[in-house]
Amino acid sequence: MQIGCVDLNSDLGEGFGPWAIGDGNDAQIMPLLTSANIATGFHAGDPNIMRRTVELACANGVGIGAHPGYRDLVGFGRRYITAPATELVNDIVYQLGAMREFARLGGSSLQHLKPHGALYMQAARDDELSRLLVQAMQKLEPSLALFCMGSSVTYRVARELGQPVVREFYGDRDYDMSGSIVFTRRVGALDPEAVASRIVRACVEGKVKTVEGADLEMDFESICIHSDTPGALALIAATRSALDAAGVMVRPLPEVMATRRTALGA
User: Fold this and answer.
1) Is 28 in contact with 242 (CB distance < 8 Å)?
2) Pairing mode, if any, of strands 19-20 and 15-16?
3) pLDDT tens per residue, range 118-164
4) From CA 137, how far away is CA 143, in angstroms rounded?
């Protein structure tokens, strides 16, 4: 299926106090995006960074997303933590509430929620965690979109329970034949043109080459490139240029979802 209209998101606000994660290019990256996943303090971020990043998103007309993670500043939320699903959902609700208030303070509102790192990957295969998370969202923010992989348990549960859900394609991560990204704690520098070409192929042909060497069919509404990937600004800029050249429109998430519903006859 050719994808002619996509959202483009990245994880921003991932510093702490005077420290920055990645190249520290949030102010340059933000205008290239349509959605921003803003760190909510557990894996990265603090109240001052959260407020500044929300204001930056509002100034650029970018959709605001809460990006909650494990309580793991030292490991940047990429270490798995064994805890009951109810405890993890409580942590997510706590972080969501903080970001929702900063969005309100900035004169805006939350568009979506996207778990970070190892928490995202745990939810992707954990029915109980995904189900409790979606049920909590339906009580607190029933219109809030949940970002996840199309192959994930999270996607299946959100569809089953009727929560708005957005499938992502990761431009700067490898895939295996299960449809999952190959989780890694550290990513090296990538070639911007190669990343952009991979993303364009996923949009135009609906396929990505897996680590096993075979093509995998993909369908998605949003593209993610992480801001902590070395050279993220160049990756995102090259991707925007390549998508424009290929006739793939980068648009705000509500427009993308409306276009997709129309295409599907929903």
Assistant:
1) no
2) antiparallel
3) 999 999 999 999 999 999 999 999 999 999 999 999 999 999 999 99
4) 8
- What HEC string does the chain produce? CCCCEEEEEEEECCEECCEECCCCCHHHHHHHCCEEEEECCCCCCCHHHHHHHHHHHHHCCCEEEEECCCCCCCCCCCCCCCCCHHHHHHHHHHHHHHHHHHHHHCCCCEEEECCCHHHHHHHHHCHHHHHHHHHHHHHHCCCCEEEECCCCHHHHHHHHHCCCEEEEEECCCCECCCCCECCCCCCCCCCHHHHHHHHHHHHHCCEEECCCCCEEECCCCEEECCCCCCCHHHHHHHHHHHHHHCCCEECCHHHHHHHHHHHCCC
* Residues 219, 167 contacting (CB under 8 angstroms): yes
Q: How far apart are the C-alpha atoms of 258 and 255, rounded to whole Å? A: 5
Query: In whole angstroms, what is the distance from residue 145 CA to residue 30 CA?
Result: 20
Find tokens 């909590």 and name the residue: 136
Site of tokens 């299946």: 156
Place of tokens 């050279």: 231
Residue 186 · residue 227 · CB < 8 Å: no
Q: What is the pTM of this model?
A: 0.96
| Contact assessment for residue 251 and residue 7, using Cβ atoms and an 8 Å cutoff | yes
Q: What is the pLDDT of residues 213-246, one digit of tens each?
A: 999 999 999 999 999 999 999 999 999 999 999 9
Q: How many Cβ atoms are within 10 Å of 250's Cβ, its own excluded?
A: 17
Which domains, and CATH codes, for the chain? 5-263 (3.20.20.370)
Between the CA of residue 30 and those of 73, 110, 157, 175, what are the distances in Å? 23, 16, 31, 26
